[in-house]
């Protein structure tokens, strides 16, 4: 199957394609002057500063990610570190609360 355009359609299509592909000849380069596409030293300096900032951010992120545990799940009960048992306190060593005699009750 071949695609052929009727003669009434082919002429306007080819004419418009030729018009659209022509370069402007009246001195208007469409905003592309002689400096178009050239970078200024200030732009290059800004680019270098951005690259340095990204390098520091990557370094900082790497340090923080190394501190993150592999899993946030609680460890199983058998692997949990045992806490030292509290020593038994002798009853004589425990001080009894002393009632404050300076407070008086209102009748």
Q: Short summary of the structure?
A:
With 107 residues, the chain is an all-alpha fold. It is built from 2 helices and no strands.
Structure notes:
Helices cover 39% and strands 0% of the residues. The protein is mainly alpha-helical and 107 residues long. The model has no long low-confidence stretch (mean pLDDT 75).
Explain the layout of strands and helices.
Elements lengths: L6 H15 L19 H27 L40
Question: What descriptors fit this protein?
Answer:
mainly alpha; single chain; elongated; 107 residues; 0% strand; 39% helix
Give the N-to-C terminal Cα separation.
115 Å
Number of strands: 0
Put simply, the count of helices is 2
Biggest sheet, open or closed, and with what strands and sense?
none
The structure class reads mainly alpha
Helix content bin = 25-40%
Amount of beta strand: under 5%
Radius of gyration: 42 Å
Unreliable spans: none
Topology as H/E string? HH
Shape: elongated
Mean pLDDT: 75
């Amino acid at each position: 199957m071949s695609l052929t355009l009727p003669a009434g359609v082919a002429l306007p299509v080819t004419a418009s394609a030729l018009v659209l592909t022509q370069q402007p000849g009246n001195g208007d380069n469409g905003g592309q002057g002689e400096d178009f596409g050239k970078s200024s030293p200030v732009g290059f300096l800004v680019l270098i500063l951005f690259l340095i900032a990204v390098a520091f951010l990557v370094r900082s992120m790497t340090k923080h990610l190394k501190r993150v545990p592999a899993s946030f799940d609680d460890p199983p009960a058998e692997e949990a570190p045992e806490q030292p048992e509290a020593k038994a306190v002798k009853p004589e060593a425990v001080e009894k609360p002393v009632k404050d005699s300076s407070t008086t009750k209102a009748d």
